[in-house]
Amino acid sequence: MRQSFLSAALLAAVAVNSTATPDQHALNNTPLPDRETQRPNVVFILTDDQDVHLDSLEYMPLLRKHLIEKGTQFTKHYCTTAVCCPSRVTLWTGKAAHNTNVTDVSPPYGGYPKFVSQGLNKNYLPVWLQQAGYNTYYTGKLFNAHTILNYFAPFPGGFTGTEFLLDPHTYDYMNSVFQRNKLPPVSHKGEYSTDVLTKKAYGLLAEAVKADKPFFLTLAPIGPHSNINVKDLLTPPFGGIVFDAPIPAKRHENLFPDVKVPRTANFNPDSPSGANWVRELKQLNETNIEYIDHFYRSRLRALQAVDELVEGVIAKLEDYGILDNTYIVYSSDNGFHIGQHRLQPGKSCGYEEDINVPLIIRGPGISANLTTDVVSTHTDLAPTFFELLGIPLRDDFDGTPIPLTKEAIAQAKNSGTRREHVGVEYWGIAGGEGIYDSGLVGPRNNTYKSIRLYGEGYNLYYSTWCSNEHELYNLDDDPGQLNNLLFEEDGPKPSTKPLTLLGYPVSKIVARLDTLLFLLKSCKGQVCVKPWEKLHPEGDVHTLKDALSSNFDNFYEIEQTRVSFTTCQPGYIISAEGPQFDQDGLIFRDGLSWDQWT
Questions:
Q1: pLDDT in tens, the chain (598 residues)
Q2: DSSP letter string over 453-501?
Q3: Sign of torsion, CA 56 57 63 65?
Q4: Are 470 and 582 found together in one domain?
Q5: Prediction pTM value
Q6: Sites of the modification 3-oxoalanine (Cys) (predicted)?
């Protein structure tokens, strides 16, 4: 039954003219005099797995010319779950993954079916934008497990016009399948995926300009994600998956012949680092290193077509006469590592390479050629779009609008009340990519909760794994996160752990960070934005610096419950999560208050 349906779907796709592009619908490039010009438009470009720390932005000159030099770059922007689908759902809902319950890339804990079953298809950004009077358009990857079999069950809600990439061919650079509005899927075998998407982007932009409404257009190419070949098309989640290096367009395939992965201190280090399964990784051999250098070059080459897409869209906006009334936002779902901590190519870790992602914004009122380290996360993007477009904020956002003007950024940093924290969470398996995903010892469950804290006088990362191992890094002294200040040495030799950090006992710092993480791992709404204020309703604590007052030693070091797990699970299963903090300040576990449970 499934085989015959799939065959029919693919035959229908092939029957459609796969070389046709939305350019056939294009308008002339004359601005429309009757167009509603008071409300701004948005073009949101969302790449897949693009790094900040491996210098990918340095190899995109057109992005630099049109966005970085004409807009504001946010260097401390973070995803809160370092894998595609959970991160994208967070981005579109303004909610952390523990509140969407979409925590994986495929069922039962994630993917498009989980997004639908959680009721989010009727309650996310494109739906809200349409309710606010915006037309919404999308081309590219929406979510994982959005396939040629389920794209109509139901159709993604909230869109005026779409050209979706569909699994199992989403990541097949030379064999993509797109699906326009509610028409059958169309195969583009032999065409380069990003180039196909670019043509579709121009067509959707033409449709948006023709309509007498402000618009929000999302362009989501797969670059620089790994190329994925799916051998088994019959059994979701489509077995026989082969990961390999991204494939560039033919015109870019010989660029950067001598470029290698940056040889930072944490690249294939001589000594193991991290905790849990990461600490068990073997050092990469020369053959493996040659391959990941090739993989790195392939990522840079795959980004060149994305770079051209940026310039092409800017040119179209200018030709239509609407560039000055359009915000262009550029980001990625998560970051990427290649060789750091001895890791094969991939994401899903809490380390800086995986969670720190690009964010660049250009548009009306946005300062040109400005770089800022104000902290922001993907939970902030939906609230930020609301504020840009004059839509009242929702009470259930776990994020808050990002300060966008030079004045607002300065005020946020000088007031001392701007959020300095990022709550990071992950559940389940950490899958490597490429052909050398080996060297692991023991179980590979990668479930953890962590906090990234960046404020005046401190630059910290703290995590608790489901194994109840802990990590703490001072990134000012250790930007590669190699020296885990909480690692317990094996055997009877004296501990080499430092006794102080930031001029305080390490235990004093950890007590504050653990309490903050305890709130963030189950927070909702404003508690996610202002956790210190929840802990100190008197209003005298807004930052870690405030919380380090000796007046609070007993509160943090004696009274508070610690973050812990009971078991390692593949998804968000409350019974495994240990004590939980609810919005009333009570501690729960397995549905019981902490006092009842103990």
A1: 333 223 333 333 333 333 333 333 333 333 333 434 589 999 999 999 999 999 999 999 999 999 999 999 999 999 999 999 999 999 999 999 999 999 999 999 999 999 999 999 999 999 999 999 999 999 999 999 999 999 999 999 999 999 999 999 999 999 999 999 999 999 999 999 999 999 999 999 999 999 989 999 999 999 999 999 886 655 555 556 778 999 999 999 999 999 999 999 999 999 999 999 999 999 999 999 999 999 999 999 999 999 999 999 999 999 999 999 999 999 999 999 999 999 999 999 999 999 999 999 999 999 999 999 999 999 999 999 999 999 999 999 999 999 999 999 999 888 777 889 999 999 998 888 998 875 444 457 899 999 999 999 999 999 999 999 999 999 999 999 999 999 876 544 445 566 899 999 999 999 999 999 999 999 999 999 999 999 999 999 999 999 999 999 999 999 999 999 999 999 999 999 999 987 665 665 555 554 444 3
A2: EEETTEEEEEEEETT--EEEEETTT-TT----TTPPPSSSSPP---SEE
A3: negative
A4: yes
A5: 0.92
A6: 84
Q: How far is CA 565 from CA 447, 561, 568, in A?
A: 10, 12, 7
Q: Tokens representing 304?
A: 């060149």
* Catalytic residue of the set 79, 84, 85, 528: 84
Regarding whether 127 and 6 lie in a shared domain, the answer is yes
340 and 482 in a common domain:
no
**Tokens 């991939």 found at:** 346
Mark whether 85 is an active-site residue.
Answer: no
The residues, ordered by sequence, that sit 6+ positions from 269 with a Cβ below 8 Å of its Cβ are 283, 341, 342, 480, 482
Q: Give the CATH number for residue 123.
A: 3.40.720.10
Angle at 520 between CA 527 and CA 468, to 5 degrees: 160
Could you list the residue range(s) of the whole structural domain that residue 501 is in? 441-597
Check whether residue 400 and residue 445 sit in a common domain.
no
Nearest one of 395, 384, 532, 335 to 453, comparing CA atoms: 532
The residue out of 344, 376, 404 marking a domain boundary is: 404
- 386 and 510: one domain? no
Q: At what angle do helices 193-210 and 286-319 cross, to 10 degrees?
A: 20
Q: What is the DSSP letter of 278?
A: G
Cβ neighbours of residue 284 closer than 8 Å, sequence gap 6 or more: 268, 292, 339, 342, 436
Cα–Cα distance, 315 to 328 (Å, whole number): 12
